[in-house]
């Protein structure tokens, strides 16, 4: 009988309890023992939800206070020297690495943060040196195992594989071969496995998602060596792969010293018989058969037809699971009371996905498909629903041509027109878009949604917030202003609420990083814009000042990437639908007197396929979609875009092809290292490298900002440089925001005098 297991569960809790506990601890309103008690309560609830849904082997170690890569860094003792403190504990050390600050002290530069493969989840990048020493310095994993056992559960500890960990790390100083650290790191992993064996653990899940990549021979050999080293330590090893097809590594995998393999079957193009052969009869074959990254209900009838032969053949040596950790999905669909019944019948969140596995296993074991056929009826109904298709949208997209992705003139001509129209100084200062989202702002949005604040009162309060933000920016001396985005809950969710073919949830939260949670829209049909989405707020802000105010839009690739996307239409087509809607918004903003429009694409680099052989196809359609969105702008209208966490070296040509007049990027945590891409590429347009990190409450001084601008000017001509923070400021407090922006403006002023 096939066994049900899970690779990971959302750690935030049904009502985002982890978020609120973390923020209370950082604010000093609860102590660490209270925080830890809240964590234990969340883990208990998560295990109970999974066990009640039929999961037999429960993941332990998937819970993390910030992110699971950072948890591994602390566990193996790879803490950067600047984050050490004699009077702290592992938890505060973890927070110093992530935030540059912890309640026990230390104000220091946080470590870099980037996306976990091609997901919307972030991790803190490990910093390793050639002299790195590893040691088992944190026992939290073992505590969690004991908790689960005491509650009567059978735990399956989850570890990030040692080779994936090294692959994701950065060289802290001079470049070196990170794999040279593998033997020493493996010694710590052996200690971990020995301790787990002493706790009577039977199975340990080793996640090696880099197997989805096209690896060189050194990493392929390192994977083989690592499993040889980790076998024979009293536990059975389940290799977990996910996010993409790993058929190119099957020959290697069949030689690993492991007891089972998990494949992301939904991302795989390999025949199930090939997987079966590679694993062999003596090892467990685990198949990820329900989607761990999206919210659509599974077609269990179809899955049963495909799985039944292999289930009969393998029996208990077949395991079924989600495709990857359910970290990337909301917790429980049953909380959603405002979704219309038809749309809700098409969905499944983390709890429901575990229940799907139980239904599927019952059908595989009993050959009674009545329950799964009834369950799958909604999936078939969705395929034929008239709500999904919009002929007008389909015709607009079908009519797009190469000309629809062109501005009126080349950048060299546009730049002259824009300089004359905008009259900006050298090193113009601006922000990325959002300003602090105060409790009053959030309460007003809640009251408006709940119907306790009428439309007129809501608009009056939002306009007051915009007026305040404009006055603050003018007092600080910024050159290009923003309206602050008080009306926006999230840069993608906001547009999801206003576009046709898109819906949003009440409680569909997923973790982005640390305490930051987002509520992705659900794209279920053809996407269209029925009315202006941002024009009123931007026009009002511009009426308050003589300085230019940027119109703020989220780009087509980012809206696509940061939503739960329909699985019945290809991504390039959906991106074009969104681009056409945004093009209309650009034209309306321009007609309303907005001379600078920012189309944010923070997901552009992050959305890259895992396999380099697939990159060009992606870059072609992603670049095209952005250019369609911007194509309605006249020469005098300056188009900006913003990108986060982006290594540009390998795609700098595509970035240039986007043809944005100004690109702002996140560079401060890397100390401008990301600008290396621009050193040997003659990037023609203007660029604003972030000069301070907004993910930490620390306030940069003028000297440090000037140093970063000087460093940037070594690679970008100063006349094409802008000065701005790394990202939006919505998560910050006003006191630190004013201080940081004041120093930023002062740094720009001093540099103008020095350069003149």
Automatic annotation (TrEMBL):
Domain of life: Bacteria
Keywords, sorted A to Z: Amino-acid biosynthesis, Metal-binding, Methionine biosynthesis, Methyltransferase, Repeat, Transferase, Zinc
This protein's pathway: Amino-acid biosynthesis; L-methionine biosynthesis via de novo pathway; L-methionine from L-homocysteine (MetE route): step 1/1
Entry's cofactor comment: Binds 2 Zn(2+) ions per subunit.
Chain positions recorded as L-methionine binding sites: 432-434, 485, 600
Domain Cobalamin-independent methionine synthase MetE N-terminal: 5-313
Enzyme class: transferase
Positions that bind L-homocysteine: 432-434, 485, 600
Record domain Cobalamin-independent methionine synthase MetE C-terminal/archaeal: where: 427-749
Gene Ontology process terms (BP): methionine biosynthetic process; methylation
CDD domains from the UniProt entry: CIMS_C_terminal_like, CIMS_N_terminal_like
Molecular-function GO terms, alphabetical: 5-methyltetrahydropteroyltriglutamate-homocysteine S-methyltransferase activity; zinc ion binding
Binding site for Zn(2+) 1: 642, 644, 657, 666, 727
HAMAP family: Meth_synth
Function: Catalyzes the transfer of a methyl group from 5-methyltetrahydrofolate to homocysteine resulting in methionine formation.
Family membership: Belongs to the vitamin-B12 independent methionine synthase family.
PANTHER family: 5-METHYLTETRAHYDROPTEROYLTRIGLUTAMATE--HOMOCYSTEINE METHYLTRANSFERASE
Protein name as it appears in the record: 5-methyltetrahydropteroyltriglutamate--homocysteine methyltransferase
Organism field: Pseudoalteromonas ruthenica
């Amino acid at each position: 009988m096939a066994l049900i297991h899970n690779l990971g569960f959302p750690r935030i809790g049904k009502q985002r309890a982890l978020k609120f506990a973390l923020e209370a601890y950082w604010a000093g309103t609860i102590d660490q023992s209270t925080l830890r008690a809240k964590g234990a309560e969340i883990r208990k609830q998560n295990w109970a939800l999974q066990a009640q849904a039929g999961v037999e082997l429960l993941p332990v170690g998937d819970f993390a206070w910030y992110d699971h890569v950072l948890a591994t860094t602390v566990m193996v003792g790879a803490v950067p020297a600047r984050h050490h403190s004699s009077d702290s504990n592992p938890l505060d050390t973890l927070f110093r690495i992530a935030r540059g600050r912890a309640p026990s002290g230390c104000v220091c530069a946080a470590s870099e943060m980037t996306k976990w493969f091609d997901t919307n989840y972030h991790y803190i990048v490990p910093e390793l040196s050639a002299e790195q020493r590893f040691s088992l310095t944190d026992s939290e994993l073992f505590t969690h195992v004991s908790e689960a056992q005491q509650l009567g559960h059978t735990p399956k500890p989850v570890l990030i594989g040692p080779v994936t960990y090294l692959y994701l790390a950065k060289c802290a100083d001079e470049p070196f071969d990170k794999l040279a650290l593998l033997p020493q790191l493996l010694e710590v992993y052996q200690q971990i496995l020995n301790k787990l064996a002493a706790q009577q653990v039977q199975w340990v899940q080793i996640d090696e998602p880099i197997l989805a990549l096209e690896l060189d021979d050194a990493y392929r050999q390192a994977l083989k060596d690592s499993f040889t080293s980790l076998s024979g330590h009293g536990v059975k090893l389940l290799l977990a792969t996910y996010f993409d097809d790993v058929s190119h590594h099957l020959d290697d995998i069949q030689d690993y010293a492991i007891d089972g393999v998990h494949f992301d079957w939904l991302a795989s193009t390999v025949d199930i018989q090939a997987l079966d052969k590679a694993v062999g009869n003596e090892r467990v074959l685990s198949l990820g058969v329900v989607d761990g990254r999206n919210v659509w209900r599974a077609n269990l009838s179809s899955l049963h037809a495909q799985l039944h032969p292999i289930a009969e053949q393998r029996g208990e040596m077949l395991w079924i699971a989600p495709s990857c950790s359910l970290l990337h999905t909301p917790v429980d669909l049953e909380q959603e009371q405002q979704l219309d019944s038809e749309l809700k019948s098409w969905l499944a969140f983390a709890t429901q996905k575990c229940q799907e596995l139980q239904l599927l296993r019952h059908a595989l074991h009993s050959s009674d498909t009545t329950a799964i056929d009834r369950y799958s009826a909604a999936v078939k109904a969705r395929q034929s629903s008239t709500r999904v298709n919009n002929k007008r949208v389909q015709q607009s997209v079908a009519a797009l041509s190469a000309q629809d992705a062109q501005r009126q003139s080349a950048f060299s001509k546009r730049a002259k027109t824009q300089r004359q129209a905008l009259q900006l100084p050298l090193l113009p200062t601006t922000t990325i878009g959002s300003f602090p989202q105060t409790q009053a702002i959030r309460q007003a949005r809640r009251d408006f949604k709940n119907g306790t604040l009428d439309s007129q009162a809501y608009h009056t309060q939002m306009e007051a917030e915009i007026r305040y933000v404009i006055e603050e920016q003018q007092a600080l001396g910024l050159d290009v202003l923003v309206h602050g985005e008080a009306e926006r809950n999230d840069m993608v969710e906001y547009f999801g609420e206003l576009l046709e073919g898109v819906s949003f949830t009440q409680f569909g939260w997923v973790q982005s990083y640390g305490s930051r949670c987002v509520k992705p829209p659900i794209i279920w049909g053809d996407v269209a814009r029925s009315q202006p989405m941002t024009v009123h707020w931007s026009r009002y802000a511009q009426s308050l000042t003589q300085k230019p105010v940027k119109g703020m839009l989220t780009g087509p690739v980012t809206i696509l990437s940061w939503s739960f996307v329909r699985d019945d239409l290809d991504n390039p087509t959906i991106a074009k639908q969104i681009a056409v809607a945004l093009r209309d918004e650009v034209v309306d903003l321009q007609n309303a007197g907005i001379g600078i429009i920012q189309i944010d694409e923070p997901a552009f680099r992050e959305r890259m396929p895992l396999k380099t052989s697939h990159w060009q196809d992606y870059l072609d359609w992603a670049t095209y979609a952005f250019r369609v969105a911007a194509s309605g702008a006249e020469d005098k209208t300056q188009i900006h875009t913003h990108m986060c966490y982006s290594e540009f070296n390998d795609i700098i040509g595509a970035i240039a092809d986007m043809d944005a007049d100004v690109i702002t990027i996140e560079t401060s945590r890397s100390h401008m290292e990301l600008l290396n891409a621009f050193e040997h590429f003659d990037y023609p347009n203007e660029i604003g490298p972030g000069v301070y990190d907004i993910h930490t409450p620390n306030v940069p001084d003028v000297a440090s900002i000037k140093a970063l601008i000087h460093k940037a000017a070594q690679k970008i001509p100063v006349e094409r440089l802008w000065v701005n923070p790394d990202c939006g400021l919505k998560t910050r407090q006003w006191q630190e925001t004013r201080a940081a922006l004041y120093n930023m403006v002062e740094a720009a002023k001093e540099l103008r005098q020095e350069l003149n």
